[in-house]
Amino acid sequence: MADEENTYTSFKGYQRVASGDLSSMLLETKEHIETSGEESLLIFEDTTGRQVEFDFRGTADEVLERHGAAKPRVGPGRPKLGVTAREVTLLPRQWDWLEQQPKGISATLRKLVDEARKQEPNRERARRLRDAAGKFMWAMAGNLPDFEEASRALYANDFSSLQAKISDWPTDIREHITRLLDQCAELQEAAGE
């Protein structure tokens, strides 16, 4: 499986509204809000299961720009990267090495992190996806029948039992969990589990 790009899925109740990369999800969700007038949605980052919030005020272009999903400008200047500033503590020799890198400290650190993520073992990536499915289940299906049994099956990696427990759940909820677990099973298979 290639290095995954973050994807997002929005839900209105048990119904999936949009799913895809950030730009696609934002545009489809914005369109849903405008046509339905309904703004109380839950949006999940698929690779973590974390709920995220977006500001849908203004035009579609303004929404994309606000959340760093707009197409980069052509011409001089840097496009917004969506960077988050945080403190990093390193030894003097590490700072010296970073300062000598031709593309600068931040670019070098980003490159090192991206390379490390690509080398991340499939087992760890599979665990993260399983945990993302668990977070999603807690948020969206905690009151559905057989939730506790389904949750136990998830964390026991008993996906066939889990599928049986969620077979009567709303279609979009079930399909979202299944999509995450299919990716998880692919990674587990690649890791030889």
Topology summary:
Blueprint: E1 7-12, E2 15-21, H1 22-36, E3 42-45, E4 51-52, H2 60-66, H3 92-99, H4 105-118, H5 122-141, H6 147-155, H7 159-165, H8 171-190
Helix pairs in contact: 5-6, 5-8, 6-7
- H/I helix tally: 8
Number of domains: 3
The proportion of residues in beta strands is: 5-15%
The structural class is alpha+beta
Largest sheet, described in full?
A: 4 strands, antiparallel
Head-to-tail CA distance between termini: 15 Å
Order of helices and strands: EEHEEHHHHHHH
The geometry reads as flat
Count of beta strands: 4
The chain-level mean pLDDT equals: 86
Major beta sheet, strand line-up: 2-1-3-4
Helix content range: 40-55%
| Unreliable residue stretches | none
Radius of gyration using CA atoms only: 20 Å
Describe the structure.
This protein has 193 residues and is of the alpha+beta class. It folds into three domains: 7-66, no CATH class; 86-119; 122-190, no CATH class. Helix content is 52%, strand content 10%. The chain contains eight helices and four strands, in the order ββαββααααααα. The protein has helices spanning 22-36, 60-66, 92-99, 105-118, 122-141, 147-155, 159-165, 171-190, and strands spanning 7-12, 15-21, 42-45, 51-52. It has a four-stranded antiparallel beta sheet. α6 packs antiparallel against α7. The longest helix has 20 residues, at 122-141. It is flat and about 60 Å long. It starts with 6 loop residues before the first strand and ends with a helix.
